[in-house]
Amino acid sequence: MIYIATFxxxxxxxxxxxxxxxxxxxARMMPVPRKLSxxxxxxxxxxxxxxxxxxxxxxxxxxxxxxxxxxxILYSYF
Amino acid sequence: xxxxKWYIILAGLIIGVIASVLVLLGNPANMGFCIACxxxxxxxxxxxHKAAAVQYVRPEIIGIVLGSFLLSLAKKEFSPRGxxxxxxxxxxxxxxxxxxxxxxxCPFRMILRLAGGDLNAILGLVGFAAGIGCxxxxxxRGYSLKRTYRLPASEGAAFPATTVALLVILxxxxxxxxxxxxxxxxxxxxxxxxxxxxxxxxxxxxxxxTRLCMVGGIRDAILFKEFKLLxxxxxxFLAALVTNLILTATTDGTYFxxxxxxxxVAHMDGLWNALGMLLVGFACVLLGGCPLxxxxxxGEGNSDSAITVIGLLLGAAFAHNFGLASSAKGPTDAxxxxxxIGLVIVIIIGECNIRSNRKKG
Lengths: 78, 361
Prior knowledge:
By secondary structure, chain A is an alpha+beta fold. Chain A has one helix spanning about 10-25, and strands spanning about 1-5, 25-30, 40-45, 60-65, 70-75. Chain A has a five-stranded antiparallel β-sheet with strand order 2-3-1-4-5, with helices on one face. The termini of chain A are far apart. The model of chain A has no long low-confidence stretch (mean pLDDT about 95). Chain B has helices spanning about 5-25, 35-45, 60-75, 85-105, 105-115, 120-140, 155-170, 195-210, 215-225, 230-250, 270-285, 290-300, 305-320, 335-360, and strands at about 80, 150. A two-stranded antiparallel sheet of chain B has the order 1-2. Chain B has one domain (about 5-360). The model of chain B has no long low-confidence stretch (mean pLDDT about 95). Chain B is built from 14 helices and two strands; from the N terminus they run αααβαααβαααααααα. By secondary structure, chain B is an all-alpha fold.
C-alpha cells in the first residue's frame, strides 16, 4: 500500500523519512499533493504494509491512503 | 502534462494579463502587483510612515486576502491555525520587507519588472535564487518553526475581517487616511478602487487554488526537481510580457523597454539589487512562502501568516521612517547597513533554531 504523510514542517517530513529508512520502509519526500492540502509544504510517500506502521510524531498533520481516484484520509489533526 | 499543471499555467496567464492591464488602468509602471510596495503604500496611508510619495490603501491587498478567504470558505479549506513561532515570523517578515525595499519590489514585482524589460531585475532574480538556496541549506540541516495548532474560527477570521474594515474606511471615511497627492510618486498612481479590488479578488482566489508561490516554486525545483509551482510564474512572466508588448504597440504608453537605464521605480545598483533579493529569498524560505503566499494563507485563516504580514507592514514603516528604502537614485547607506543586519539576523535565527531543535531531538 502507498501512503502519504503530511507534516506541519519540512523538519517533520525529514524526521519521518529517517524513521521510515530505519524501519526499512521505502519512503521519499515530495511536495504535498494539492488534492490533500492547500498547504505547499513537504510530505513523505511511504510504501508500507499497514498504516499503523507509519511513524507518527507531534509533527504529523495527516496520513492518507493513495488510491486510483485520489486519496482516502486515515488520520488528520485538523 | 497533469490537469493540475495546466490549471497553474492558466492561472499564471490570467494573473500576468491582469497585472499588465492594471498598469494600463493607472497603476505604476511594472507594478500591476507588488505585495511589498502595496503593503508599504498601505502603511503610509495609515500614517505609519510619512513618505508622501507612497501613501495609498491598495485595494489589491484587501482583494487578495478576501479572494483567498472566500474561496477557502467555499471549498471548505478555511482552517484557523497558528502558534508556530509567531515572533520569529514577525522578525523574518520585517527583514523580508527591508530586502524588498532595497530592490524595490517583491518576488511578484520582480517577475513583472522582467516582463517590462527591466534588466536590473535579472540581478534581483540571481540574488533571490541564491537566497532560496541558503534557506534550503538550513531546511536540510533541520530548521523548523515548529508545528501549528488548531485555533478558534474567530482567530482565523480576524485578519480577513481587518481587511474588510480597511475597505470600509477607504470607501466610507477616506478622510481618516493619508493619500499621495497627484504627481507625488507611485502612491498617486492607481487604478479605480473597484477594479483594483476585483483584480485582487481574482488573483487571491487563483493563488489559493493553485498555491502559487515564487519561493515555493524555486524551492521545489531545487529540492525535488518539481517544477509545477515554478510554471505558474513562468506563465505570469510570459503573459505579462506579451500583454506589455501588445499595449506598447497599440497605445501611446510604453509598457516594455528592454534596458537597465530609465526603468520606473527601480535603480541600477546591481550588487544591492541582488543582495536585497538574497535577503528576501533567504527569509521567505525560512517563513515557508513569499509575501503573496503569506497574504493568501492569512486569508485561509493562518494567523502565523497574518503575523508575518504585520511584520512586512512594520518593515515598510521602518524602511521609510529611517531612510532604508531605495529610490530611483539608488540604495541609501542606511538601507545597505539594514540589509547586512538583516542577513546576519536571519543567519542567527537559523543557527539558533537548528541548535534548539538538536537539543530537543
